Amino acid sequence: MHRAPNLWHWVIAGLVVSLAGVGYDVARAMPQRTLPGAMRHVTHAATTAVQAAVLLQLDDCSGNLRMLHVLHRGSTSRHIQLAVIWYVGPVSDSTNIRTALPSWTAAIPLRTAPPAVVRQFASLGHTTTPALLVLDQEGRVRFTTQSPRSSREVAGLRRIIEGLTWIEEL
User: Fold this and answer.
1) Which of 26, 47, 79, 166 has the most Cβ atoms closer than 10 angstroms to its Cβ?
2) Domain of 152: which CATH number?
3) Could you give the CA distance from residue 87 to residue 118 in angstroms, rounded to a whole number?
4) Number of structural domains, the chain?
5) Is residue 7 in some structural domain?
């Protein structure tokens, strides 16, 4: 003989499902320990493109975003996907940063930089912003740099990035 579940069974089942959902949300919200992990956490999508991320702050938006222009130029934009723009500073800066960014970045997630991401950039020698991170297709760090300061450095960065995409096409 099969007995119908009583009210307590339904309450317990509901609590178990709720706790599982909370556990999933907590796991997704936990800061990732590596830069590639933090990028995967933001993008959620598998891609064959080389992935890039930028770390900046509101003060950088007054004209120090040359690396974004390099990423958006010519064939580079087809081969390198800007996955996330992280920023350092108060959450209230996000609106001003988004307004100052080029219009083509509107679909790129703009996120507060987790402390682990800032520490990893610092461990790579980048203690100021803006900084660029490029991962290869396997999610390994291939290249990091500060924003170029001159037209000569912009040209050099463009050649480096083109070289990275050429290597990935093999």
Assistant:
1) 79
2) 3.40.30.10
3) 9
4) 1
5) no
Total Cβ atoms within 10 A of residue 111: 16
**What is the distance in angstroms between the CA of the first residue and the CA of the last residue of the chain?**
66
Query: Is the residue at 72 inside a domain?
Result: yes
Q: Where do we find the tokens 């920023």? A: 87
Tens digit of each residue's pLDDT (9 = 90 or more) over 69-97: 888 877 666 778 889 999 999 999 999 99
Instruction: Identify whether 126 is part of a domain.
Output: yes
CA distance 102 to 120: 26
pTM exceeding the 0.85 threshold for the entire prediction: no
Half-sphere exposure (Cβ direction) of 26: Cα atoms closer than 13 Å = 6
- Give 126's strand partners: none
**Which domain covers residue 100, as residue numbers?**
32-168
User: Which two three-digit tokens encode residue 83?
Assistant: 């996955």
